[in-house]
Amino acid sequence: MLKCYSYDIVCQEIPDEISLAVNISCCPNRCPGCHSQWLWEDKGEPMTEEMLSALIGSYSSAVTCFCFMGGDADPAEIQKMAIFIRQKFPGLKTAWYSGREELPEGFDPKVMDYIKLGPYKEALGGLKFPTTNQALYRIEKDGSFTKLTIS
Ligand code: SF4
């Protein structure tokens, strides 16, 4: 079960998209220097299909992308919810900010339009730093990854 700790409408996370970004709690990654330690806790509203329908329905005319921020504790549920969003809101793109080094086995990248991979490493900086270890990819129709970040 995923839990939605908070959400926001953001423009920076995914290029050329206005994203409804949902912060998911229970993060298992424990990155040293984590900027969002409150997301380690088991808190928030359960992310169900009904909850997502209501939330996205409220903002569907304002956003072009739905971004899962976290959710590494339950990637299978991320995949399931991304499939649901694609079916229910076909015009909306889907994105996942994962803190893992690579996708978990069995996860189908084609359920996403964008995927960010890599844990936060304080010495290397976040996604916007040229030294970062993290990378944002666009997922092509055949499931291949096109790297969008420059590091
Ligand atoms: S993945 Fe993000 S929220 Fe989780 S520990 Fe790392 S920096 Fe913190």
Account of the protein in words:
The chain is α/β, with parallel strands linked by helices and 151 residues long. The chain has one domain (3-147): TIM Barrel (Alpha-Beta Barrel). The protein contains two helices and eight strands, in the order βββαβαββββ. It has helices at residues 49-59, 75-88; strands at residues 3-10, 19-24, 45-46, 65-69, 93-97, 114-117, 135-139, 145-147. An eight-stranded mixed sheet has the order 3-1-2-4-5-6-7-8, covered by helices on one side. A hairpin with an 8-residue loop joins β1 (3-10) and β2. The protein is globular and about 40 Å long. The mean pLDDT is 96. Bound molecules: iron/sulfur cluster (SF4). The site of iron/sulfur cluster has 11 residues, from loops.
In summary, what is this structure?
By secondary structure, the protein is α/β, with parallel strands linked by helices. It contains two helices and eight strands. It has an eight-stranded mixed beta sheet with strand order 3-1-2-4-5-6-7-8, with helices on one face.
Number of structural units classed as domains: 1
Uncertain stretches: none
What would the principal axes of the Cα set say about the shape? globular
Q: What fraction of the residues are assigned to beta strands by DSSP?
A: 25-35%
CATH-level-4 superfamily name: Aldolase class I
Q: Main sheet: which strands, in order across?
A: 3-1-2-4-5-6-7-8
- DSSP strand tally: 8
